[in-house]
Amino acid sequence: MASIKFLIWIFFIGFSNQLFPLIQGLGVNWGTMASHPLPPKTVVQLLKSNGIKKAKLFDADYNIMAALAGSQIETMVAIPNDMLGLMNDYKSAKQWVLKNVTRFNFNGGVEIKYVAVGNEPFLASYNGSFVNLTFPALKNIQAALNEAGVGDKIKATVPLNADVYFSPDSNPVPSAGRFRTDISDLMTQIVLFLNQSNAPFTVNIYPFLSLYLNDDFPIDYAFFDGTSNPVLDGTIQYTNVFDANFDTLVSALKAVGVGNLPIIVGEVGWPTDGDKHATAAYAERFYKGLLRRLAANTGTPLRPNQYIETYLFGLIDENGKSIAPGNFERHWGILKYDGQPKYNIDLSGQGRAITLVLPKGVEYLSKTWCVIDPKALSKAMSKLGEDITWACANSDCTALGYGSTCNGLDTNGNASYAFNMYFQMQSQAESSCDFGGIAMITKQDPSTPTCNFTIQIKITSFSSAALLLLPRFALNVILFILLVLLLI
Predict the structure, then answer these.
(1) I want to staple 388 with a disulfide (CB 3.0 to 4.6 A). Which of 64, 81, 418, 425 is the partner?
(2) Which residues pair with 414 in a beta bridge?
(3) Where are any strands of DSSP class E within 131-172?
(4) Tens digits of per-residue pLDDT, 284-333?
(5) Are the CB atoms for 273 and 399 separated by under 8 Å?
(6) Max CA-CA distance within the chain?
């Protein structure tokens, strides 16, 4: 009976996707900075089940590429910032393209469309570390793609943070947009090169950060429901920061002579924990407004009535991300760490109260938690603060911060949460639940109505999808050996 219900559900989802097709040009960011990531094959099936046909990666991991092979999911692979220096050598750039692009360019392979050269390499917080490395790497990668015979359909681009352009304080409107003064000449060279090679400008826009960084920022302006105080730019009224930010870039491009350069929104999203404004309710509100506009091809005031290729950030929460920008960094996923939904989201942009189709076959560790032992409260309690700090430094306690979902726990609750997060991070190894004898393993769920005590998923060490990319002869040999073993 359960299997029949599942088949009916899958049929309903498929029929619903035909009635309400996914927004044109919509994709997701697939990050993997997690202690217990979902298997690549599971994620690919998750994407396909939800009709998602575009994925943006942050590297070119072999297991992920193997899982994507044959899926027809259009993919943006990436070169991490720490490899930009190496890509300044053309021979190295050619080898990278051979290993990570042309290797998968076959019938039934990976539908690679873009190569992201770096990720936000000009962030002011990087203090210019990648300023002199990015453009040479970009040129070398595109040249290597051209030499490999795929440059006409695979383009190199650079995902950039919105801090590379601005409007001056004396005229803070989108039409006054210009590239940041310290990199203005470099940005001009880059966009002229992108225009020449028919590649898009890729920008990451985060209305949430506008709210996070400025307590006086009008909260309604971060969403798409309208505002009582729009920004006036001549005859144009800007009612949300997304449009204003996007059009500031359009003006900056126009100022250097490439006003029609295609723009991809490489990242846009809203986190659900780690800050008072990072909530599931706000995330649902944000996506409902954004997706409705994308579905209608509303465009922006300076680029009206056109679709915008957009990648939601991100698909799944990542508990291994740096929290230097803020505790919210580990909670950008539209899905939880295990692929479970956080809120309603309709990728057709019709605003239906639905969740995404869930991943199949996710395996969890046993239903056991690590908590403070009430019988040992007098033992080593003087070091409790140190134990909590150590456990959090080696796991993920971002939900304990101010304004977060677990902020209301008492001292013992904080300790139990920290101990359990470390315990789960260590795949429930018994030795990881000790903390000087004040912790214990329990089968009683310590979660509260607002604070979830995680049970981690199992880690898979091998992806069977990798078999898809083995040479035919090697695959036949493996199948023959398996057959022989079965007959013994």
Answers:
(1) 418
(2) none
(3) 155-157, 159-161, 165-166
(4) 999 999 999 999 999 999 999 999 999 999 999 999 999 999 999 999 99
(5) yes
(6) 81
